Amino acid sequence: MHIIVVGVDHTTASIELREQLACSLRQVPQVLRASQEVAQESVLLSTCNRIELYAVCQDAKQARIDLLQILSETRQVALADLEAHCYDFADGQAIAHLMGVTCGLYSLVPGEPQIQGQVAESIEIAQGGGYAGPITSALFRAVRAVKQVSVVTRLQSVMWLYNSPASYFPGSTMRVFCCWVPVK
Question: In the CATH hierarchy, which fold is given to the domain comprising 2-168?
Fold first, then answer.
């Protein structure tokens, strides 16, 4: 069995493509239902800046192709457009990616806390519809530990300071330094 994620985010796709792919809460089950044809378990994370389909499957290479096809068909996006802008990770890299996403490391504004709730909501929807199974449930349960780590280390505070508006104005005399300080 393999854990795979395919998706696009603000670093790989235009806002127009992300808007075409985005799913409302009502549309998520449609994608998850279609993914059951190729995956034993699946979870869809759909936000304004990313759409990621996590799946448990037998063949990671074939699953990548099949899952992109499912996103293409269910969201009515040309497969070529999706393939040109997508990323995919398998097994350990997929897990590490989910942890980074949950911490806000890959967010448009690094460290933003909303993604944690969005990740939690995505697994709740998948579990409620019977699309998540023991592997995805355990994986997303581990995400709660990631949330605790980001709270304990005050990652969001540091990242929000780093991304303060003053750091974006040319000629600003304010210098923003970001350092990692362990919290006792």
Answer: Beta Polymerase; domain 2 (3.30.460)
